[in-house]
Amino acid sequence: MTNFERVKNIIINTLEIDEVASITMGTSIMDDLDADSLDAVEVMMALEDEFDIEIPDEDAEIFKNIGDIVRYIEEKIN
Amino acid sequence: MSLVGKNALVTGGSRGIGKAIALELSKNGINVAISYINNKEKAEEVVYEIEKNGVKGMAVKANISKEEDVLNMAKDIDAEMGPIDILVNNAGITKDNLIIRMKTKEWDDVIETNLKGTYLCTKSFVKGMMKKRYGKIINIASIVGITGNFGQGNYSASKAGVIGFTKSMAKELASRGINVNAVAPGFIRTDMTEILKDDIRDSLVKSIPMGRIGKPEDIANIVVFLASEKSDYITGQVINVDGGMVM
């Protein structure tokens, strides 16, 4: 599984959505997937568990789309 | 009962209202952790009584106004008992004084324990509740947080703060299956009210329509209700338990 797929799975499970095909690197969690701020925090918490990293709030604030998240995580785990 | 096997933390559970809450929860099959600040012996006695009800009990020394203490407490409880389902923010202190005589330390101490402590404990345990989509947070406020009280500027401000915090948390967490409510005790017989002078006590009792002082168990009963599935549709409320003092 690629990191993008792992992130995508976390988002799908956390937000309990089923439109899997429409999620791309350019998808915004809040604008495109109708997540509220609490959902976004929960996605971050779940990603922290999945990748065993810490994502400080200041970092999470600058993510614009899923691509930003994947690149951030890859930088952290490599 | 669906409460059987759930885990609760009662801060300040070694005496007074907190002790009554801890014991009542344990009678309903709930494992109960209590925090205490000084009196280890008293805390251990409460744990002994909790365990007599056939559930797990534990006592953790923690100053809830200190973030480090709260984080360590959360770790200890998680290791020994597992995730907390029911959080009772009960620990509180008074340092009564007239505003003209109040020391800033008296103000800070009361706000830090009663209000900041409630915030720190909530923050520490809410993550686990969010993940489980289940949780009951019960904050012990006071009717003076609603009415104000002569000589209790710091205490009443801290309790009014707890009430505002309760309502905000109820709004933030409702969609995650977490209920947040406050209980506002009136005049309850504890060490905190035992120090009052006789004439003050007498005049207080006169202001209670029921004409008597409440028992810690009166608070414990409503906390058990708010911890149970019977209160699943109630959130963001302040329930006065005061013999009719404030209406």
From TrEMBL, chain A:
PTM comment: the record says: 4'-phosphopantetheine is transferred from CoA to a specific serine of apo-ACP by AcpS. This modification is essential for activity because fatty acids are bound in thioester linkage to the sulfhydryl of the prosthetic group.
Q: Which GO terms describe its molecular function?
A: acyl binding; acyl carrier activity
Domain Carrier: residue ranges: 1-77
Pathway where it operates:
Lipid metabolism; fatty acid biosynthesis
Per its UniProt entry, which superkingdom is the organism in?
A: Bacteria
Q: Which SUPFAM superfamilies match?
A: ACP-like (SSF47336)
Q: Tell me the Gene Ontology biological-process terms attached to this UniProt entry.
A: lipid A biosynthetic process
InterPro entries per record: ACP, ACP-like_sf, PP-bd_ACP
Q: Where in the cell is it found?
A: Cytoplasm
Q: Which GO terms describe its cellular component?
A: cytosol; membrane
Record function comment: Carrier of the growing fatty acid chain in fatty acid biosynthesis.
Per the record, the similarity remark reads: Belongs to the acyl carrier protein (ACP) family.
HAMAP family xref list? Acyl_carrier (MF_01217)
Q: What is this protein called?
A: Acyl carrier protein
Protein species of origin: [Clostridium] ultunense Esp
From TrEMBL, chain B:
User: A Gene Ontology biological process annotation?
Assistant: fatty acid biosynthetic process
EC number(s) reported in the record: 1.1.1.100
Checking Gene3D superfamilies in the record gives:
NAD(P)-binding Rossmann-like Domain
Q: In which pathway does it act?
A: Lipid metabolism; fatty acid biosynthesis
Q: Any idea which UniProt keywords this protein has?
A: Fatty acid biosynthesis, Fatty acid metabolism, Lipid biosynthesis, Lipid metabolism, NADP, Oxidoreductase
Q: What reaction(s) does this enzyme catalyze?
A: a (3R)-hydroxyacyl-[ACP] + NADP(+) = a 3-oxoacyl-[ACP] + NADPH + H(+)
Q: Active site: which residues?
A: 155
- Name the residues that bind NADP(+): 12-15, 90, 155-159, 188
Family annotation (SUPFAM superfamilies): NAD(P)-binding Rossmann-fold domains (SSF51735)
Q: Which InterPro entries match?
A: 3oxo_ACP_reduc, NAD(P)-bd_dom_sf, Sc_DH/Rdtase_CS, SDR, SDR_fam
| Domain of life from the UniProt record | Bacteria
The protein's GO terms of the molecular function aspect are: 3-oxoacyl-[acyl-carrier-protein] reductase (NADPH) activity; NAD binding
User: Which family does the entry's similarity section mention?
Assistant: Belongs to the short-chain dehydrogenases/reductases (SDR) family.
> Matching PANTHER family, A to Z?
3-OXOACYL-(ACYL-CARRIER-PROTEIN) REDUCTASE, 3-OXOACYL-[ACYL-CARRIER-PROTEIN] REDUCTASE FABG
Which proteins does it associate with, and in what oligomeric form?
Homotetramer.
Q: What does this protein do?
A: Catalyzes the NADPH-dependent reduction of beta-ketoacyl-ACP substrates to beta-hydroxyacyl-ACP products, the first reductive step in the elongation cycle of fatty acid biosynthesis.
Q: What is this protein called?
A: 3-oxoacyl-[acyl-carrier-protein] reductase
User: What is the originating organism of this protein?
Assistant: [Clostridium] ultunense Esp
